[in-house]
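hey all, quick one before standup. I had two proteins in the batch that finished overnight and I want to keep them in one place so we stop losing track of which output belongs to which input. First protein below, input sequence then structure tokens straight from the run.
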Amino acid sequence: MAETSARPWTRPYDWAEVVFGVVAVLTPLWMETNTAAMWTLIVLGALVALDGLASLAMPGMVYGEGIQIVLGVLLFVSPWVMGYAEMAGAAWTSWIIGVLTVVAGAVALPMANAAHSRTAGQH
């Protein structure tokens, strides 16, 4: 796994983050949402997916994993902050995808650090 972590487009945790983001973006298609829930899921989901793609393209970008963790926390707290905690489907989607995004970002952080260390020594 250490060998593949330095190559672009090979890290499974970053692929998982892309999938989590896409699921969040598409959630308003099959869950009842209000305007706040819909736009929160779309915007934060798109940011999670885009940051996952950036991390896949540039495996040594350590701050990308930190951004993932922050986005996951924002997604987790968004039902309370944006006022859609009473909408069970949208709220649970935010909570679950938020936690999974934080976990994936935290697990990918050591791989990003290792890839960054290898590429930093080559400059």
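OK second protein, same deal, sequence then tokens:
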Amino acid sequence: MEKNIPDFFQEKLKDAKTQFERTIDCKHTEFDDLYPYMNEQPQFFWYKRYVAWQELLTIVKLAEELDVPWQENFKEQQQNFITNKVMDAKVLDEWYGKKRTEA
């Protein structure tokens, strides 16, 4: 069965974005299942955020290399964060916008 590359990457972008957002919200992710013994370590939450961020950046990079548009999946501020590639507290605080409300 052949896969359409743009559709494939759109799906992967959506999955990576969801995974990253779940880490921001301190929700369970696939990464928790890989390292269940680490859940009680405070640094684990930062580590899994960095892993999810890197996954998102990698998929965006591959999409760009294949000329698959990725920007439509993200708000302008999120696009800027991705383009700048640096993961810091500002990304976590402002990913949803300046007036983020806790879920």
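Flagging for whoever picks this up: Helices lie at 5-24, 30-34, 42-65, 76-84, 89-94. The chain has a mean pLDDT of 89.
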